[in-house]
Protein: Retroviral polymerase SH3-like domain-containing protein
Organism: Dendrobium nobile
Amino acid sequence: MRTLLQTASVPYHHWPEAALTAAYLINRMPSKTTSHKSPFQLLFNKTPSYSHLRVFGCECFPLLPPSSRHKLQSKANSNIFLGYSDTYKGYKSLDPLTNKVTFSRHITFNENSFPFSNQPHSILLNSQSIPSSLLIPTSLPNPLSTAEHVPCPIPVTNSMSFPPSTSPPMSQQEPQPSTQPRHSMVTRSKTGHLKPINRLTLLHQENSTATQSTPTSYTEAAKHF
């Protein structure tokens, strides 16, 4: 398969056609293990024909049917031979202009011409079939080598002497007195008479209920309603 692709400079994405053509040729080649008989002969009990074999990837000219061309158009276009048909007797060809594959029995071959070898984009197609993981370099450049040289700061050691400080020691800051509000309103916070807030607690309820005396008559009880 590799020989078929490289001989005709066929791009690697046509490897399925090359694999089928290689299997087609191997099935018609005699072998010592089968008493110099080909697999085709062992299967059909007859000698295969070799007159229809052509060079893979060569130039060919399939005959166009009258329904697909007009009177002024040529009867055949330049195509590339890509193998044989598995269903009927015919050849598989590729139109490089339209990228269309056709099967034809009436076809003329030019086995000395290989269109893929004359196309400059064949090298590009070959490189596109290579996996991208194989194109990554194994060793990446060291980013530190391309960085600009930054001078290192000089470390400060204990041996360096500094002149004694002549500034007086800082005195401890005294806490500033809290400023009182300057409004003229007299509040309980200014006079110091603060009342505790009696919320709805159990202690407050017990004290309030303890101060109330139990009425002894209806007249005393009616005063509370």
Remarks:
- The longest helix spans residues 15-26.
